[in-house]
Amino acid sequence: MQRFLDLDDFTRDQVSDLIALARRLQDHPEPRALAGKILGLLFMNPSLRTLSSFQAGMMRLGGSSFVVTPGQGTWQVETRTGAVMNAGAAEHVREAIPVLASYCDALGIRSFAEGRDLATDIAETQFRLMAGLCDKPFVNMESAMNHPCQSLADWKTMDDLAVPRTGRFVLSWVYHPRALPLAVPAATLHMAAHRGMEVVVLRPDGYALPESVMAKARAAAKASGGSVGETSDRASALAGAHVLYAKEWGSPECYGNAAAEALLREPLQDWCVRDDWFEGARPDCHFMHCLPVRRNVAVADAVLDGPRSRVIPEAANRMVVQMAVLYRLLKGSFGR
After folding, report:
1. 151: in domain
2. Residue 20: which CATH number?
3. Residue 53: CB partners within 8 Å, gap ≥ 6?
4. Which residues constitute the domain of residue 293?
């Protein structure tokens, strides 16, 4: 295993192997497993859980890490191909990433969507460029259209809760004052389909996920025996649900147009998860969200603080699954 870019790169057995390893490292720590190894972390965008969980996980395995946040103690970094660098950025990723890779044994990069052109972001043009510049084991810490570390943690969380592999999983759009990236909803949809679940995307009109995202999920569902559907009807979506996974995202129809986006979402402020959303769900339906979350905007206090909420163990699982990823990247491949 040399790259952790997309959960779709791994079979269900390999995902299960990573989760089993995460549990083993959680229950039986190996504090010298990665002694002497260095993890480089390049954050082009903000982070709380990803940054802290990777650093903590690397330390728990006996390794060390360094963090670079361009523009905060380092030069601003340019990502565009063919850019005329006569503005703020003093360094290009074509030099920065090979140099950083030479200082470490593995490199992780977080680089969000630009949010201007949907086709460009779906193509992951900039992220693929940066990944291609690294000759060391590499981790996607969230790109324009993917967040495999979050998805692996979500998969483990559902396994921990004994949610059936064939259970009903509802990915629901929820309100946010502005458009957010498509990375987590796209990755979450694919993860649940890959797991073999009955997946329903619940969203208002105008917020259907891009067809390429849906097609990828449908292909994963076909291979796993699951299914993928979508609706704007809340009651039918949540009927018999094992999991309600809430997430905010921007409208593909208004992509890059903030004014049109604001008009589209203005009447949708009632898309805030409250207790009454669960009336048709299973009594043991779990609530999940990747965090951060705006309380009483996207999700009500009563849900986040209530007995259904799994957001804290879900976040805690980020560290342990990433420890498994780092272990496989730096110590041994699958089956070893």
Report:
1. no
2. 3.40.50.1370
3. 318, 319, 322
4. 162-309
pTM of the predicted model over 0.90 = yes
Which tens digits make up the pLDDT trace of 75-91?
999 999 999 999 999 99
Express each pLDDT in 165-207 by its tens digit. 999 999 999 999 999 999 999 999 999 999 999 999 999 999 9
Per-residue pLDDT tens over the stretch 257-273: 999 999 999 999 999 99
- Domain co-membership, 170 together with 304: yes
The token duo for 182 is 């498509």
User: Which residue type, as a one-letter code, is found at position 40?
Assistant: G
Please state, for a pLDDT cut of 70, what percent of the chain lies above it. 99
3-class DSSP string for the chain: CCEECCHHHCCHHHHHHHHHHHHHHHHCCCCCCCCCCEEEEEECCCCCHHHHHHHHHHHHCCCEEEEECCCCCCCCEECCCCCCCCCCCCEEHHHHHHHHHHCCCEEEEECCCCCCCHHHHHCCHHHHHHHHCCCCCEEECCCCCCCHHHHHHHHHHHHHCCCCCCCEEEEEECCCCCCCCCHHHHHHHHHHHHHCCEEEEECCCCCCCCHHHHHHHHHHHHHHCCEEEEECCHHHHHCCCCEEEEECCCCHHHCCCHHHHHHHHHHHCCCCECHHHHCCCCCCCEEECCCCCCECCCECHHHHCCCCECHHHHHHHHHHHHHHHHHHHHCCCCCC
What pLDDT, on a 0 to 100 scale, did the predictor assign at position 336? 38
Distance CA 84, CA 192 (A): 42
